[in-house]
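Consider this today:
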Amino acid sequence: MIYIDKLQYKRILKQARDEFPNECCGYLGGLNSGKDIFIKKVYSLTNTDHSSEHFSMDPAQQFKAVKLMRSENFNMIGNYHSHPYSPSRPSEEDKRLAFDDKILYGILSLEKEDPVFNLFRVDKDKNVEKLEYKII
């Protein structure tokens, strides 16, 4: 099972709303315990594209976030971004850019009044698997 810290989920939601109408982005840090994954901290990054249709992460911020994550003894669990005007599922571009089949890809949709957050795995053949999670 995948568990997301409630405060960290709220941070993703706040970032997405604050950066609307652009996509927001960041990393998911946490711990693996057997088959369980615990997302303990989000690392907000800047979308250097400043676009509502795609994102690029600031390389200097990426390096700093990974360094901080390691210093906090967290693993790179995955990344996330928002879809301001489309559903919470990987776009063709998202699938094309999903290079690591071992990490999670989170997508928060603000398309409707109630936000929708989903986690996915994308395998090397670009097949998408939607994953179950619990907010704790």
About this structure: Strands lie at 2-4, 25-33, 36-45, 75-83, 104-109, 116-122, 128-131, 133-135. Residues 108 and 135 are 14 Å apart (CA to CA).
